Amino acid sequence: MVKKVIIDCDVGVDDALALILAFHSPELDVKAVTGVNGNVTLKQVFENIQKVLSLIQPKNKPLIAKGADQPLKGKTIYAHSVHGKDGLGGAKIDRREGEEGWQFFPGRADELITKMARQYPDEMTLIATGPLTNLALALQRDPGGMGKLKAVAIMGGAVRTRGNITSYAEFNIFSDPLAAKIVLESGLPITLVPLDATHQVSLTPQWMENRVKPINNSISKFIIEATGYDSTTHQFRNMERIHLHDPLAVGVVIDPTLVGKERLSIDVGTQEGEHFGKIVEGLGKSNIDVCFTVDVKSFLELFLSRLG
Ligand code: RIB
Ligand code: CA
């Protein structure tokens, strides 16, 4: 049964890898890709969505829409140090005029999300790989529409592990904790894919040399450029390994058996200070399954098998 999905993202390098995995997976039918401010500015995110879709050249062209250019509250933080100024590690993608891989939606991202949820009631899965601002805006404007989503997969949070932006907080949640609180308290059927899981799956120089480089196509060349992998030094530009945060959020929708989950009620620290953006395990009723274990080998093989 092919799953209809929408991907809300802040294209950065791992978001791009998530889009490649999603569009190269027969289990998924990606109906829309929406952009949110996060790793880089919204303008750059939307430019990157179009660049990556030009690289993928999907058979069925998704609708694309721009969303929030800043968090519900507070200021933007960006992650240029990780994803580069352009958000794709400087990777060059030539966009062939007239061969666009998308259709523009004449409205905001949150409007497209609820429109799609209402158009395909109980069939649509929303995958969020950036800050949750668009999802929160959609819940505030049309909770009934969001209630028609079949499932929601979210890459975000650090539950029982160290954060990656502060010692407690993960980037997507830290970027807009108020939005995260609204979404995680909404009662939507959420699978949360936190750093606890995503730190277990990464591309190493060895995988790049032995498994990615030999694919030798436009996708593998993009991954090499975007990660700054250097074949002579066997190193990435600025990381020891490339964590596949966002691709794992897509992976759990493709094959839910790839992860082990625990049902937890979740709260989010929204007060300024050291717990800002921290995920706190609560008691009481919940609709959130949190991924803690991963079948690492199966996921990596799935990811690599879809780059061809
Ligand atoms: O913390 C990792 C997350 O933050 C990923 O989604 C990455 O793309 C950044 O958005
Ligand atoms: Ca992301």
- The total count of helices amounts to 13
Q: What structural class do you assign from the helix and strand content? A: alpha/beta
CATH names the topology as Inosine-uridine Nucleoside N-ribohydrolase, Chain A
Computed over alpha carbons, the radius of gyration is: 18 Å
Give the oligomeric state.
single chain
**What level of helicity do the residues show?**
25-40%
CATH first level: Alpha Beta
Protein architecture, described:
By secondary structure, the protein is of the alpha/beta class. The protein has a single domain (3-305), classed as Alpha-Beta Complex (Inosine-uridine Nucleoside N-ribohydrolase, Chain A). The protein is 35% helix and 19% strand. The protein has a 10-stranded mixed beta sheet, sandwiched between helices. Strands 8-9 form a two-stranded antiparallel sheet. Helix 1 runs parallel beside helix 2 (42-56), helix 1 (13-23) packs parallel to helix 12 (245-254) and helix 4 crosses helix 5. It starts with a strand and ends with a helix. Residues 10, 12, 14-15, 38-39, 79, 129-130, 155, 164, 170-172, 245-246 line the site of alpha-D-ribofuranose.
Task: Give the gist of this structure.
By secondary structure, the protein is α/β, with parallel strands linked by helices. The protein is 35% helix and 19% strand.
Secondary structure layout:
Layout: E1 3-9, H1 13-23, E2 28-35, H2 42-56, E3 63-66, H3 80-83, E4 103-104, H4 109-119, E5 124-128, H5 133-141, H6 143-146, E6 151-155, H7 171-175, H8 177-184, E7 190-193, H9 195-198, E8 202-203, H10 205-212, H11 218-227, E9 242-243, H12 245-254, E10 259-268, E11 279-282, E12 288-294, H13 296-305
Parallel strand pairs: 1-2, 1-5, 2-3, 3-4, 5-6, 6-7, 7-12
Antiparallel strand pairs: 8-9, 10-11, 10-12
Bound molecules: alpha-D-ribofuranose and calcium ion.
Calcium ion binds near residues 10, 12, 38, 39 and 129.
